[in-house]
Model the fold of this input.
Amino acid sequence: MIILFIMIILVYLKNNFMFESNGFPYLIALGLPVIVLTVLGSIFLYKTYISKLEQSHRSVYTMLVSFLVVIGIAIAVFIVMLSLFLSKPDSMKSVIIISVVPYYVVFIITSGFFIYISPGLLDKINGIPKY
Done:
C-alpha cells in the first residue's frame, strides 16, 4: 500500500511540476513502483498459495509457477513500454502499439486461469483444500 501511495505521489509530481524534466522520467515515477509491486505480489502469491502445491500436485505447481513468471514479466514489460511512451508521446507511438502484446498475454492467461483452471483446482476430486 505504501508503494502504491508513493507511485501516485510520484506520478502527480511528474505530471504537474516536472513535466519538462528529463532527469525525472515516467520510468522512475510510474515504471519502477509498478515493477516493485509486481515482484512483491508475485512473491506473495507464490508463498501463500502456489508453494503449497509443490509436493502434492507437481504438474499443477509447475504450470502455476510458469504462469506467474510469464505474467510478472509481461506486466513489467508493458509498464516499461507505457512509461517510455508517456515520456515522449510524439516519437514513441510505435512503442505503445508493441506494448499491447504483453498486455494481452497477461489478459489471456489471467482469463484462462479464472475460467478454466481455478474451478478445477478447488474440485474435490483433486484433493486440494480450499484454504
Remarks:
- DSSP finds five helices and no strands in the chain.
- The helical segments are 2-16, 26-48, 58-87, 93-98, 100-121.
- Residues 2-121 form one domain.
- The two ends are 24 Å apart (CA to CA).
